[in-house]
Structure to design on (304 residues):
């Protein structure tokens, strides 16, 4: 099938906006990519904003077509949602180099205060609506939109970190975890919401130790940037080992806090001592041991 000049311009602009950004892409760059003269170019588009609108329309159309094909080809709504989740692997090469095409464009247009930002967000809305429909089909009418946004948040977060770290093992782990959440947590509508379950209590009578680790900045806070990469590696090891359940910041800018479980107090002390922030006196560490008695059902793995 022959592609007309206008379609070629839109295709080239779509790719260049993704790879270089909207603002950095010139008329000349698009014309060179298509191989047409300036006069022929202006016959189809007078301004770059007109091209942007055409690109957004093309993205909306291609997104709807892709989702329609998924709906026709997948056996059920769960498999369709999994197809969406696995986009971060299917398009991994491009995401590592340029990020998510939807997120990067909407972010850039927001920074520019561009009037087409709301139109570009429409691609997210298409995904949101389609995901909501899949969860409704799974019987989750009451919280279908919440679940759709949860899956969208996953895809954007993983795409951002894939672009930052180029860590394919991390991406695969996150996809596996969300698929576990989907396949292991699809109860009837009258049961509890979908829940991730990456941490489960072992089949034994052994009491589970729970801790809060407080890492407060010391007078050497200025040295944090020197050891940040090693500190983050230490955090990832703790999460991968199943010891760190939650990691976050103490506001405002006072340090960090970790919810941990599993090891004995002595083992946790040894692990904390290996934190480069602790070893180089960037933070002072305090370990608080908790004996959980009453928990929300989502944290039932912390009690026997």
């Amino acid at each position: 099938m022959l592609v007309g000049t206008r379609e070629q311009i839109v295709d080239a602009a779509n790719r260049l906006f993704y790879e270089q950004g909207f603002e950095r892409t010139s008329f000349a760059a698009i014309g060179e990519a298509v191989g047409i003269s300036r006069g022929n170019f202006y016959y189809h588009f007078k301004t770059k904003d007109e091209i942007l609108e055409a690109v957004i329309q093309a993205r909306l159309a291609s997104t709807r077509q892709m989702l329609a094909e998924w709906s026709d080809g997948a056996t059920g709504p769960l498999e369709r949602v999994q197809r969406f989740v696995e986009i971060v692997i299917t398009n991994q090469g491009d995401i590592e180099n340029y990020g998510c095409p939807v997120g990067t464009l909407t972010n850039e247009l927001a920074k520019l205060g561009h009037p087409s930002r709301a139109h570009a967000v429409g691609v997210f809305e298409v995904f949101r609506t389609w995901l909501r429909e899949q969860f409704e089909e799974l019987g989750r009418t009451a919280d279908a939109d919440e679940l759709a946004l949860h899956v969208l948040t996953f895809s954007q977060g993983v795409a951002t970190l894939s672009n930052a770290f180029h860590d394919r093992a991390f991406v695969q782990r996150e996809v596996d975890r969300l698929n576990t959440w989907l396949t292991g947590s699809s109860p009837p509508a009258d049961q509890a919401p979908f829940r991730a379950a990456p941490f489960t209590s072992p089949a034994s009578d052994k009491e589970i130790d729970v801790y809060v680790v407080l890492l407060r900045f010391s007078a050497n806070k200025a040295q944090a940037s020197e050891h940040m990469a090693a500190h983050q590696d230490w955090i990832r090891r703790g999460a991968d080992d199943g010891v760190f359940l939650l990691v976050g910041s103490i506001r405002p800018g006072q340090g960090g806090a970790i919810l941990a479980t599993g090891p004995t107090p002595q083992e946790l002390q040894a692990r904390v001592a290996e934190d480069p922030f602790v070893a180089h006196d960037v933070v002072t560490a305090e370990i608080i041991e908790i004996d959980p008695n009453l928990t929300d059902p989502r944290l039932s793995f912390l009690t026997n």
Summary: The radius of gyration is 24 Å. The CA atoms of residues 207 and 304 lie 7 Å apart.
